[in-house]
Amino acid sequence: xxxxxxxxxxxxxxxxxxxxxxxxxxxxxxxxxxxxxxxxxxxxxxxxxxxxxxxxxxxxxxxxxxxxxxxxxxxxxxxxxxxxxxxxxxxxxxxxxxxxxxxxxxxxxxxxxxxxxxxxxxxxxxxxxxxxxxxxxxxxxxxxxxxxxxxxxxxxxxxxxxxxxxxxxxxxxxxxxxxxxxxxxxxxxxxxxxxxxxxxxxxxxxxxxxxxxxxxxxxxxxxxxxxxxxxxxxxxxxxxxxxxxxxxxxxxxxxxxxxxxxxxxxxxxxxxxxxxxxxxxxxxxxxxxxxxxxxxxxxxxxxxxxxxxxxxxxxxxxxxxxxxxxxxxxxxxxxxxxxxxxxxxxxxxxxxxxxxxxxxxxxxxxxxxxxxxxxxxxxxxxxxxxxxxxxxxxxxxxxxxxxxxxxxxxxxxxxxxxxxxxxxxxxxx
Length: 429
Prior knowledge:
Blueprint: H1 14-38, H2 48-62, H3 66-79, H4 84-96, H5 100-114, H6 118-130, E1 139-150, E2 161-165, E3 169-173, E4 183-195, E5 202-212, E6 220-233, E7 236-249, E8 252-265, E9 274-286, E10 295-308, E11 311-324, E12 333-345, E13 350-368, E14 372-390, E15 395-408, E16 415-428
Antiparallel strand pairs: 1-4, 1-16, 2-3, 4-5, 5-6, 6-7, 7-8, 8-9, 9-10, 10-11, 11-12, 12-13, 13-14, 14-15, 15-16
């Protein structure tokens, strides 16, 4: 059974992005005022270090790090007291954090010091009228229900027999339980995210339950929970996360997992719409019912993402090593991972996805000396396509198809699979 992987939605940053958009708009207008004031003695208007600080503050707002943005803006106004945009952005940020008295003091200071334009005065008046409400964490919950058909629920082998050497080749037929078994299933899932601090830290919870129509010994359930926090290291954005989870199979605990992750977005001069992310994982896998299968997996990955209007694409490549914590068959493993993904918004509320993933593992020693002397080499390819339709403001219907091809040099581990699933997703308001 493949370990579950977490995927986080950007929905949790909606409020931060909205605030960032407001501040960016206000900042642009305020900078026009600052430019007008430059002739009256704003010698630092074109100072590169101050510009760098201002960009750092705007990046912090875009990433949901409102506390960091506020601290950076305070540094900027201390170094450059006539930076009009920084003063206004600081006032708006304090208002967004619910600091009413501080926001009003900064608005009044901005009005008296910079002689703002009518547009800026209107913006300030609207902000005062709306009020500086105390910070409230953003929440995002998605519930999904699905119905699917699985051609190989048990990952049954593509061959019907095992050939071993007993002074000559001996063919051993596989029992029916080790051959592909098809079934249909129902699926229920919940994904929940919540801001934990005004500085962009989030908590997340993911649960999923799958129940087969007939093959209940392959019913599965999983729950994962974790926290993620953003950081700024020089000009790089760093997000660190810690996750704990468990998976059951057939009603019994199958796997426990813990993961530490770091994602780094370096400041590189990439073309518009492109972003490079570097990712590192350390994952602890524990199998209570399997002897000698516990391991620690280390992974390093680079992902390049690009967006242009309705089209989004990403490509990733990574290297992995899996260290056995016992006498696991085949010993340690090393491998690599590659993927490409295309997403596009289509007319009439439709959306499409197409993705391809290839993962390779190579063991260090013979799988079972004396019985299976081969050193296991595994190659798994997954082709996935999905078509979604927005049926309501908060509801999405999604049809997903997956084809899995697992090729190995030990024939009894080879398997193929095809899955078709129809799901309805509710984004709770």
